[in-house]
Write a structure and sequence with these properties.
single chain; alpha/beta; Rossmann fold; six-stranded mixed beta sheet; four-stranded antiparallel beta sheet; globular
Length: 254
């Protein structure tokens, strides 16, 4: 398999010289093309900072991050904007949908920015909407949708541009258990279709839908586990075992 994401010896410091905080400490890992990986860690472990530097919201202090063959830590200006627009898909906890646009228009916006033709936009939206079971709600506005429907629209917006990798930040955080399960089952479907997903979560149930879980502690990779041929329930139990091993550090992961 080909690595779509390579994080190599990344460090991230915050603060001034007199009061430095190391959020990420010589952290390295890879995500293969078509893989669904979850990042777990307690508050302050560095997982959100990690997502921020991969998404180019923040800059690394040292180290390199490659998406495909491109070192994104060196991108600036128009090249950086183009990378964010064309190579990344984002799914946020709070959906980030525009209230004045319909579900269809929210999804179309990502393609319009890329100057895709109207005919091609419609084709792509119909395809992704069918995959995520949202065809019947495309004409509705966000205020008319449930939390689960909003998140599936946000997911459609993230994948419709065919990005190299989708970054999901606590995607089930604002959903009830039923809506969360439906969304995660769609993530598993996308994974089988070859979509690459990197998801940050504090929740063991959510993480159990991934193929691999990387645990972050004090800005470093503490441990990683693979689902392999295990059932989701068996993988969930593996995750809980690691949480237990970490003791109080991941109490908020349960």
């Amino acid at each position: 398999m080909d690595a779509i994401l390579k994080v190599q010896r990344v460090e991230k410091y915050y603060g001034s010289r007199s009061s430095l905080t190391k959020a990420i400490d010589q952290l390295s890992f890879e995500v293969q093309k078509g893989e669904f990986v979850a990042i777990m860690g307690a508050s302050g472990s560095g997982k959100t900072t990690l997502l921020n530097v991969i998404s180019t919201i923040d800059r690394v202090t040292s180290g390199h991050i490659y998406v495909g063959e491109q070192d994104i830590t060196k991108l600036k200006g128009n090249a950086l904007n183009r990378f964010r627009r064309e190579e990344l898909g984002f799914i946020f906890q709070d959906f980030n949908l525009l209230d004045t646009l319909t579900a269809y228009e929210n999804i179309a916006l990502a393609l319009s920015i890329q100057n895709v033709s109207v005919k091609e936009i419609d084709k792509k939206i119909q395809e992704v909407s069918k995959e995520l079971d949202i065809t019947s709600i495309l004409g509705k506005y966000p205020y008319q949708l449930s939390g689960g429907e909003k998140q599936r629209v946000a997911s459609a917006r993230a994948i419709v541009t065919n990005p190299k990798i989708i970054l999901a930040d606590e995607p089930t955080g604002a959903l009830d258990s039923r809506a969360a399960r439906m969304l995660l089952e769609k993530f598993q479907y996308l994974d089988k279709m070859g979509v690459t997903i990197l998801m940050v979560t504090h929740d063991a149930f959510t993480a159990s839908y991934a193929r691999r879980v990387i645990f972050i502690k004090d800005g470093k990779v503490f441990k990683e586990i693979h689902k392999g041929n295990d059932t989701r329930k068996e993988f969930f139990n593996q995750i809980i075992d690691v949480v237990t091993l970490l003791g109080g550090d991941l109490n908020d992961a349960l």
